[in-house]
Design brief:
The protein is of the alpha/beta class and 193 residues long. It has one domain (3-191): Rossmann fold. The protein has helices spanning 11-14, 24-31, 47-57, 73-77, 82-97, 113-116, 125-146, 153-156, 172-191; strands at residues 3-9, 35-41, 65-69, 102-106, 150-152. The longest helix has 22 residues, at 125-146. The termini are close together. 40% of the residues are buried.
Length: 193
């Protein structure tokens, strides 16, 4: 029976800014042809909505299914308090991991092009990246505490405009880096199934 991976997230999972065939989820589909990857990424989604969708998918739990989960960038860009984001993420990721295998995604940082593209103001830029770093640290600790694998896109993608289409969303080269990072995380999980 084929294994399924349900990928929940925002535009970073949906593949905003690149052709569908170039998104990291599509690249993974080609690298693991016997696994079905379902991209449930929704552009503009806050992490609370992503978590609610993932919780719905996990009940009742399905055999031969894993969840990939990444969000939080929109929350930080919208000015939602980091403490609220962390509290919600910890509670719901913990609950999800009791039902299905969960792989966490750690979102990348932004670059100065995000200001020109209108995703944030210049006064937000440093704060956004500092909160994304703190959020990344939190997700790494949470993954370790819950023994969850994590695809760390924050460290995989250099914080350089050459890897982004608009300072927030990776371009095709950025998605190739994301796919390589995710492949290293998924390989041992899928081979053992």
């Amino acid at each position: 029976m084929a294994f399924s991976v349900l990928c929940f997230g925002d535009s970073l999972t949906a593949g905003y800014g690149v052709a569908p065939k170039d998104s990291w989820v599509s690249l993974l589909t080609r690298r693991f042809p016997s696994t079905r990857f379902y991209n449930h990424g929704i552009c503009g989604c806050l992490f609370s909505s992503i978590l609610e969708d993932a919780l719905s998918a996990a009940a009742p739990p399905a055999k031969h299914t894993m969840l990939f989960l990444m969000g939080g960038t929109n929350d930080i860009l919208c000015g939602i308090r980091l403490g609220s984001l962390l509290q919600r993420a910890e509670r719901d990721i913990n609950a999800l991991s009791r039902h299905l295998p969960v792989i966490l995604g750690i979102p990348p940082l932004t670059t100065p092009d995000s200001i020109a593209a209108g995703w944030q103001q210049d006064w937000q830029y440093e704060r956004t990246n500092e909160e994304l770093r703190l959020y990344g640290d939190f997700l790494r600790r949470l993954a370790a505490d819950l023994s969850l694998p994590a695809a760390d896109f924050q460290t995989a993608i250099p914080q350089q405009n050459a890897f982004y289409s608009d300072g927030v969303h990776p371009n095709a080269e950025g998605h190739r880096l994301m796919a390589r990072t995710a492949e290293a995380v998924f390989s041992p999980l899928l081979i053992s199934q």
